[in-house]
Amino acid sequence: MIFRSRVYTDRPAYADFGSAQKFDAIRSIIARRLIEYPNAICSYSGGSDSDIVIHLIETVRKTLNLSPVKYCFFNTGLEMDAIKGHVRDMEKLYDVEITEYRPKKGIVQATRDYGVPFISKIISAGIEGIQTKDIPLSIAEEYVSAEDKVSKRAELKQRYPKCESTINFLCGCNSRGEPRPDIQLVIGSSKYLLDFIAGNPITFKVSAKCCDHCKKKVAHDAQKTFDMVITGERRDEGGMRSVPRKDSTSMCFSEMAGGKYRLKPLFYVSDVDKQWYKDRYSIRYSDAYEVYGLTRTGCCGCSISARAIEDLERIRPFEPNLVKAAWNVFGDSYRYRQRYNEYKAMRLKRRVGK
Questions:
Q1: Which phi and psi (to 5°) does residue 173 adopt?
Q2: How far apart are CA 211 and CA 111, in angstroms?
Q3: Whole-angstrom Cα distance, residue 4 to residue 184?
Q4: How distant, in Å, are the alpha carbons of 229, 237, 263 from that of 233?
Q5: 3-state SS string over 124-164?
Q6: Do 32 and 25 contact (CB within 8 A), yes or no?
Q7: From the CB of residue 248, how many other CB atoms can be counted at a distance below 10 Å?
Q8: Distance between CA atoms of 235 and 237, rounded to whole angstroms?
Q9: Is there a contact between 291 and 285 (Cβ–Cβ < 8 Å)?
Q10: What 3-state DSSP class applies to 177?
């Protein structure tokens, strides 16, 4: 029996349609929700998903003569000229205003204050807990070696109060003490990472709080006066976007706190669907894709991306100063991840050779 999360079991029928029929359904969904909640704001990042979303919204809105949608672009302070220029181009193309918002604390200051991301937001939060709460890595071995893991977990809770998530992260368990080695929320989700850190202590601060300060808080302030928030999130992007949440915000349309609503029209759009739509409507992405050759944009140079260094080399011929700035911000994480990747490859090779 194959276990399927609610992202799969609760998905709507149109999620399995062919591309043409799927986008017909999505346009109907957008129309219905814009009629119900005309006071809507849409996050526009300048990326490829955003380009599909703005085309869908503006096509529906102008066909049905619906109220304008507010568009917002969140500039972290480390953005490609290609993206910033594309935002202005889209304003002209669709005859809309895309308001730029900047954080009170930019990416440089945020990473200095809290630390830089490493591997993923989950891994970053776990390591941040280890660093800030001074919890030794050795508790993982204590837990694994314990015959009574439930009792050991309870004892660790007493020893390190208010450190629940960090203990679970290191030990690969839940708060009841039950082993959970195969979920995303534990250090074991990155193979051999615990062993690597034990032998190669991290000498820089790790945190994903830069995302909170440079995007999430800025977005919350920009969106608070609107009834519906529209984003371009897709399940196929993976990570936390593919994980169901208690408030059903992993679904296409959901109610948020305070009686507001979130619409993610592309949530069940696959990479194949996206390419079909791009070709069908001759959509041109930004130069970051069409000229530089990137496959994703997001936060430029973010050290969560496994392709960060490779992508920066693609950007370098066009925007060398931006690449230099990204290395100044995220360089410690880049270099440490390179060492970890080499260590992991060595361990995997040794394992295959046995």
A1: -145, 175
A2: 10
A3: 15
A4: 12, 8, 9
A5: HHHHHHHHHHCCCCCHHHHHHHCCCHHHHHHHHHHHCCCCH
A6: no
A7: 15
A8: 5
A9: no
A10: coil
Specify the pairing of strand 40-43 against strand 70-74: parallel
- CA pair distance 65, 217, nearest whole angstrom: 32
The token pair at 233 is 């999130």
Distance, in Å, from the CA atom of 65 to the CA atom of 250, rounded to the nearest integer, reads: 30
Gap between the Cα atoms of 261 and 350, Å rounded: 51
| Tokens, residue 289 | 């894709």
Token representation of residue 2: 């194959």
Number of H helices, E strands in the chain: 16, 6
Amino acid at 201: P
CA atoms within 13 A on the CB side of 81: 11
Q: What is the pLDDT along the chain (354 residues), one digit of tens a residue?
A: 444 455 456 678 899 999 999 999 999 999 999 999 999 999 999 999 999 999 999 999 999 999 999 999 999 989 999 999 999 999 999 999 999 999 998 899 999 999 999 999 999 999 999 999 999 999 999 999 999 999 999 999 999 999 999 999 999 999 999 998 878 889 999 999 999 999 999 999 999 999 999 999 999 999 999 999 999 999 876 544 444 444 444 468 888 877 889 999 999 999 999 999 999 999 999 999 999 999 988 788 999 999 999 999 999 999 999 999 999 999 999 999 999 999 999 999 988 766
Please tell me whether residue 165 adopts helix, strand or coil conformation.
Answer: helix
| Residue 240 DSSP symbol | G
- The first and second tokens of residue 288, run together, are 């970051």
Specify the pairing of strand 253-255 against strand 261-263: antiparallel
Q: From 291, 295, 299, select the one nearest 333 (Cα to Cα).
A: 299
- Vertex 172, ends 166 and 178: CA angle to 5°? 110
Backbone angles phi, psi at 195, to 5 degrees: -60, -40
Which domains does the chain show, CATH number per domain? 6-110+209-291 (3.40.50.620), 119-199 (no CATH)
Residue 102 CB: number of other CB atoms within 10 A? 13
